[in-house]
Design brief:
Number of helices: 4
Radius of gyration: 14 Å
Strand content: under 5%
Structural class: mainly alpha
Largest sheet: none
Number of strands: 0
Length: 92
């Protein structure tokens, strides 16, 4: 699994590491998706099977447990929406 970002497809805030860390500390996929959508770039899911590798943090907990089981994806999406205000990247 991977991501391709052609030149100029991401919103300029994408390189603001402090902002991304404040809004989406464990959800880079949420951050990158929002940055594409804010720049009016198309997001395309290419079907296929993938295997997820566990990414452990310092507390020995996978990001999947944090983001999915503990609903952190939903929280980080909401925080990103609030930051973007009128430009809600997830409205569609």
């Amino acid at each position: 699994m991977g991501l391709l970002f052609p030149t100029h497809t991401l919103y300029p805030d994408v390189i603001d590491w402090k902002l991304s860390g404040d809004l989406c500390p464990t959800a880079d996929d949420v951050w990158l998706n929002a940055m594409c959508r804010l720049n009016n770039s198309k997001v395309k899911n290419i079907p296929g099977s993938s295997t997820f590798l566990p990414v452990m943090n310092s507390k020995n907990t996978t990001l999947s447990i944090i983001n999915n089981d503990m609903n952190q994806n939903d929280i980080q999406i909401q925080i990103t929406r609030e930051y973007c205000k009128d430009l809600d990247p997830f409205k569609y």
